């Protein structure tokens, strides 16, 4: 019981805290690429029922189901029965920018970050979402991919399709090789805590960044409509 309460207390403080951030300086976005009008129009194209079906059938049958208990396998096998209703639900979200609370429910599960996890902070929360929610995010991600390719610097090798994080690992190894020698070009290393940079980010900050890059307001307002506002621990 005490262990469970420790987890609840830790993640209540983590997920229930809103950190105030300074406004983004829009001048920063003048230094790099911005979203072109063509890519912005692609993001706002009307979603078709065929896109919805492709998104559903792209989800692996082995993915954990969400709170409703239905897996992607169910929707694929029963598509001739539920397909029209699923398409209607997804298309309604893209028209209104709002998602039914029942579809927005997720189960937050904790997975260990390593084989040795002595503290609560050594566990990472993951969300088990409903299939319709996954389909919506898949459609958004597919439309976002060309924009990321255009906006993301080539130096970032991770989290962008067609790139591999191992490229930067090899580059880092080469750069620190013989680091202590005097007869090398000037260089330095910086230690960055990625957990602080990516694990908890303000929605206000994200909206300002997307606006600065030239994303249409309807796009990032729609993304904000998918975030959760209420967290229930252990069903209470």
UniProtKB/TrEMBL annotation:
<dbReference type="InterPro" id="IPR052343">
    <property type="entry name" value="Retrotransposon-Effector_Assoc"/>
</dbReference>
<dbReference type="Pfam" id="PF00078">
    <property type="entry name" value="RVT_1"/>
</dbReference>
<dbReference type="InterPro" id="IPR000477">
    <property type="entry name" value="RT_dom"/>
</dbReference>
<protein>
    <submittedName>
        <fullName>Retrovirus-related Pol polyprotein from type-2 retrotransposable element R2DM</fullName>
    </submittedName>
</protein>
<feature type="domain" description="Reverse transcriptase">
    <location>
        <begin position="111"/>
        <end position="220"/>
    </location>
</feature>
<dbReference type="InterPro" id="IPR043502">
    <property type="entry name" value="DNA/RNA_pol_sf"/>
</dbReference>
């Amino acid at each position: 019981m005490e262990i469970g309460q420790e987890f609840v207390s830790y993640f209540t403080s983590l997920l229930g805290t809103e950190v105030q951030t300074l406004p983004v300086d829009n001048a920063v976005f003048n230094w790099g690429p911005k979203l072109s009008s063509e890519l912005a129009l692609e993001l706002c194209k009307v979603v078709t029922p065929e896109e919805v079906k492709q998104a559903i059938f792209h989800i692996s049958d082995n993915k954990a189901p969400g709170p409703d208990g239905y897996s992607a396998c169910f929707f694929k096998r029963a598509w001739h029965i539920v397909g029209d209703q699923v398409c209607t639900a997804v298309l309604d979200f893209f028209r209104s920018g709002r998602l039914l609370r029942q579809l927005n429910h997720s189960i937050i599960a904790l997975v260990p970050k390593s084989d040795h996890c002595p503290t609560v902070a050594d566990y990472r929360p993951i969300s088990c979402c409903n299939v319709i929610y996954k389909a919506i995010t898949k459609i958004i991600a597919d439309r976002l991919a060309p924009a990321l390719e255009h906006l993301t610097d080539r130096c970032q090798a991770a989290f962008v399709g067609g790139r591999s994080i191992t490229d930067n690992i090899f580059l880092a190894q080469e750069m620190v090789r013989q680091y202590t020698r005097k007869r090398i070009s000037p260089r330095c290393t910086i230690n960055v805590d990625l957990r602080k940079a990516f694990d908890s980010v303000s929605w206000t900050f994200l909206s300002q960044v997307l606006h600065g890059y030239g994303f249409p307001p309807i796009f990032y307002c729609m993304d904000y409509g998918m975030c959760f506002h209420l967290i229930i621990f252990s069903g209470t």
